[in-house]
Automatic annotation (TrEMBL):
This is 3-hydroxyisobutyrate dehydrogenase-like beta-hydroxyacid dehydrogenase. Residues 151-278 form the NADPH-dependent reductive aminase-like C-terminal domain. Signal peptide: none annotated. It comes from the Bacteria. It comes from Allonocardiopsis opalescens. Transmembrane segments: none annotated.
Amino acid sequence: MDTGTDGSGAVAVVGGDNARGAAVGRVLAEAGGAVALPVAAGAVELPPGARLVVVCAEDHGALLGLLDRAGRRLAGRDVVDLTSGTGDEAREAAERVADHGGRYLRGALMGHPEHVGEPETVLVYSGAAEVFRDRETVLARLGGATYLGADPGTASLYDLAMLNLAWATLTGYLHTAALLGTDGVGARTLTPLLTHWLRTTVADVIEGYAGQIDDRAYPGDQEWLELDAPLMEHLVRTSEQRGVDSALPRLVQSLTARGIAAGRGRESFAGLVEVIRR
């Protein structure tokens, strides 16, 4: 197995007793050269030839425990950390690895365990650029690898922000399925139409909004908040009449009302980012 552009050593996967860690260990082991290390209360023993250590701990506390138990065994090794957490936690982990003499790269897997190893799976990394450069070949075995910069916390912020998009989108999907289900429409029936709409019209709208957000200018020549507001009221009323929870549409309605009250009624829906920014 080629474990990096320098071709040095095998890969030690630590913390693979959770679903994501197990999937990472499996994919790297199938490629050859990866060694899964059990998590125990004692010291973490690293094979001498494993110059790359991939960590996927259950949480930040477990991560710090693993790093401290590995201690100076991390000296001269590259640590790629796929543990979920905050940016501040990633920076603390980076400092801990540096104290032990290693180099640190934080990563975030934007998918479920079953997505590990698929070329389309999104993984983002930040931290030591040299680690990403030297280990990009091995990281590519886990999915598409994108480097975001030197700050170890950046990958974690992307992780949380993208999870926000995923949860918001999937909650909207669940509400849509529940609402149409009141008329006997099955989720398998509506989903092809929804995914097509997301890939085409919705994706195009998002790309258009990106420029508006960066420019902080929200022209309402095609759609505007005061035009959207009555449609939101229709959605809230219909949901409640059909016995479907209306918390999600009411949240969007509330944000829109605040935008209109702030004088943004003739702006596009993207103008709500100013309400969210506070």
